[in-house]
Amino acid sequence: MRRLLASIFVLVSGAAGVVAGAPTASAACSYPWSNPSNWTAVTVGDDVNYRSGPWRSCSSNGTWNSGSDVYLHCYRVGEKITAHGVTSPLWWHVRKAGTQQQGYISESFLRSNGWILPHPPTSHQC
After folding, report:
1. Confidence grade of residue 4 (pLDDT, cut at 50, 70, 90)
2. d(CA 24, CA 63)
3. Quick one: which of 58, 83, 101, 118 has the fewest CB in 10 Å?
4. What is the DSSP pairing of strand 60-64 with strand 48-51?
């Protein structure tokens, strides 16, 4: 009976740990996205990574320099990032203007008309 209870505890504890947090190294870091937003922005900071998902552990698809114009497709809640005076858990799926380069960028690296982005409506979620 004790072994059975111990096994159940381990299974429940392990399952609880999988629900929250960043994806594990073995987990796929590919997140679906849609394009409900017509917002645009520019990147802030050089060598800004655009990634396969909303976590720093997700692979980088490449980097962009400060001032890159991007189209904001939709956002997801992911890893909280602090950069350039902004702390946010929101990551936007974006495409760089004039290219097919796209991926997720932390909201902390995006500005609109020189300002931090306003809180997006839920209709802009991926």
Report:
1. very low
2. 23
3. 118
4. antiparallel
